[in-house]
Amino acid sequence: MMRAYKFLMRPTAGQEAALRAMLADHCSLYNGALQERRDAYRHVSKTSVRYGDQSAQLKEIRAFDPERQGRWSFSSQQATLRRLDKAFQAFFKRVKAGLTPGYPRFKGVGHFDTVTFPKDGDGCRWDSTPHDKQTRVRLQGVGHVRVHQHRPVKGRVKTISVKREGRRWYVVLACDEVPAEPLPPTGSIVGIDMGVTHFLTTSGGEHVENPRFLERSAEELAEAQRRLSTFPHRVRRRTKRHRAAARRVAKLHAKIRRQRLDHHHKAALALVCEHDVIGHERLNTAGMTKAPVPKPDPEQDGAFLPNGAAAKAGLNKSILDAGWGIFLGILAQKAESAARRVIPVDARNTSRMCPPALGGCGHVAKENRITQAKFECVNCRFVENADRVGALNVLHRAGLVLCGAA
């Protein structure tokens, strides 16, 4: 199995300055390569510059600018060029699919936060031994940086990435050949229904409350954003107060993100420990959180009819705050590691169908869902909590998948 481990780095003041310089120089390389591609296409008869062409120029670039580009790892610079190449590949893929393309953009120094080393031992080295409290990662041009390794690393380290989040620095290890750690079987199968009122509801009727981390921090975050907005939108020379206000906003967002991830990991672990098979809805969160299409008023030029955009915006915010997609990804990873099975099923009409798994008639109608919390079948008068009904229908469909596989 493939797994990623993320650890907090504890660099000295000198090492932190070197890390910032490394990010800035890789950002400059990325932007320079992007500029070359743009100029070649615009001014040289629409010539396309590819990764191989730019990678071949690295030796000359390093020799020409040894102070900035020559002191960093050659392979990490190749990884930065591959990152740009992937951005262009995704751009052309969207063009062919008829989607909004989104041409690759230049990166600001404050928004280029990751440098990747494609191979352990090539410009970087992960120094860790069992029961060693002084774990370090060696980075070319930076030195041996202390790492707070809070859990053991299993498998073989393939790639190492250095990531900046606000004022914190992290090392991310991508490992393969990670052994599975199967949990003892429980003989239990469960369906879960993701929601906004409750984060999730199981087919057994258990509710996991939605912590709403973004909503709880909304006032503090709004105040920090108001302070930041008092500065000009584009300041040529950022002041100390402006940087402090920007750090405050970033710090609050990082805290919310960490709280959400902690909640997701704990909820997923509880499900994996208690059940052998877990069924969930196959959710398209990107589609669910799209803004409604404007409705022009045919009787008045330049006017629009009500389309529920305000209410939809509130629902979209709640869905994104819950983070269903991230949670389901974490659940799948933990299930794979514990030798459990996760079954995504069709989400259509799970909240409108009278649940056959609990003796219901299977009738489907939107009138069955009386309120957000109450379900009452108009055909057989079956009454149950609406979220549990959705989880029961997910369980029923997951059981059909298991029977088909058997």
Summarize the structure.
With 406 residues, this protein is an alpha+beta fold. It has helices at residues 13-43, 51-55, 58-64, 74-97, 213-216, 218-229, 240-274, 285-288, 309-322, 324-337, 386-405, and strands at 3-10, 114-117, 124-127, 136-139, 143-148, 156-165, 168-176, 189-194, 198-202, 207-209, 277-281, 295-296, 304-305, 341-345, 374-376, 383-385.
In terms of DSSP E residues, the strand content is 15-25%
Question: How helical, in percent, are the residues?
Answer: 40-55%
Give the N-terminus to C-terminus distance in angstroms: 25 Å
Q: Structural class of the secondary elements?
A: alpha+beta
Radius of gyration, CA atoms, in whole angstroms: 26 Å
Low-pLDDT stretches are none
Count of the domains = 2
Q: Tell me the number of strands.
A: 16
Give the helix tally: 11
Largest sheet, described in full?
Answer: 7 strands, antiparallel
How would you characterize this protein structure?
- This protein is of the alpha+beta class and 406 residues long.
- The protein folds into 2 domains: 3-176, no CATH class; 189-213 and 258-405, Nucleotidyltransferase, domain 5.
- It is 42% helix and 19% strand.
- The chain is built from 11 helices and 16 strands.
- The strands form 4 sheets. A 7-stranded antiparallel beta sheet has the order 2-6-7-1-5-4-3. A 5-stranded mixed beta sheet has the order 10-9-8-11-14.
- β3 and β4 form a beta hairpin.
- The longest helix has 35 residues, at 240-274.
- The radius of gyration is 26 Å and the shape is globular.
- The two termini are 25 Å apart.
- The model has no long low-confidence stretch (mean pLDDT 91).
